[in-house]
Amino acid sequence: MLAMKLSSDYFSACLLGLASGDALGAPYEGGFLEQALWRAIGRTRAGERRWTDDTRMSLDLAESLLARGELDLADLASRFAKGYAWSRGYGQGTAKILKRIKRGQDWQLASRSVFSQGSYGNGAAMRAPVIALFYARDFSAMLHATSESARITHSHPLGIEGAVLVALACYALLHQLSTADALTLLTSHCADPRLAGKLDFLQCFSNSGKLADTPRFIVGKLGNGMTAETSCLTAIYIALRFRHSPFEEMMAFAIDCGGDVDTIAAMAGAMWGAANGEKRLPPFLLEKRSYIRHIGQLLFDINEPA
Ligand code: F2R
Ligand code: MG
Ligand code: MG
């Protein structure tokens, strides 16, 4: 769809932005018990900030796409299952599905074993930035792969559509679309009236130049929950509002929004990284930083014509 020059720096930054938002947001996610647990296990022995399921599943997806050269759901399901560890704080439904696959159940059976209509959590959306990178030069393949990749854990239409919107937002920012053009692109691919209503809200605020409300107001309008419906548009709003501001300012706003902070910040962080490149990201001690940068580079290389 778009043929402009892409740079490897922005691919790495998209993945590092995701992991940074996840790691910096994780201490604020969940209730008292979850936060106390994260205080105990939230750093590696080397003092690096640990990330959670959001980054683990994004790396699983990237590693599968790079190894297979295309989306291979059986391979991806097996990598998701191998990557599962309770200490990464997976969603309850996703954890059950991955444990079943680990025990040998076919992923197609496992995917509907918890919620009969599939999950509408934000778990497919939080890893969707990887698809935007892998298919950065093939728009229709990106849309198709995003929906397909959601199916293993999130076959509910809302879980899928949230993932598509997040992938599209990353794609738009990677290609340096204006905020108005990015929102037009998202609107043209949004069918669900609940998500479309929230996108209308973003359009109004973008048109009036008034993208500047309090976290409390934004949470009231867009949500801060663990479902795709209550988190994806919040992340997109935050990324668009802070796309030209320092990462730390965006992160402070995401933390003030509360709720599912690691995931909202991971999705917004991926979009921000895709728009800004690596040099503007804060260089704090992050678990596997060099490896994540390397995977971003490989996702760029696959898009480069030989
Ligand atoms: N799991 C966490 N954080 C723990 C915080 C728990 C805290 N006590 C709290 O409840 O706030 N974080 C990680 O999980 C999220 C991603 O979740 P994912 O992968 O989408 O999981 P799941 O279980 O599929 O969906 C999440 C919840 O949404 C509700 N839900 C989804 N589909 C449903 C359906 N069809 N019917 C009814 N409910 C449905 C359920 O409550 C699910 O548990 C991210 O935040 C990640 O960081
Ligand atoms: Mg998480
Ligand atoms: Mg979360």
TrEMBL record:
Gene3D superfamilies: ADP-ribosylation/Crystallin J1 (1.10.4080.10). The keyword Membrane does not apply. InterPro entries: ADP-ribosylglycohydrolase, Ribosyl_crysJ1, Ribosyl_crysJ1_sf. It comes from the Bacteria. Transmembrane segments: none annotated. Keywords: Hydrolase. PANTHER family: ADP-RIBOSYLGLYCOHYDROLASE, ADP-RIBOSYLHYDROLASE ARH3. Belongs to the ADP-ribosylglycohydrolase family. This is ADP-ribosylglycohydrolase family protein. It comes from Massilia frigida.
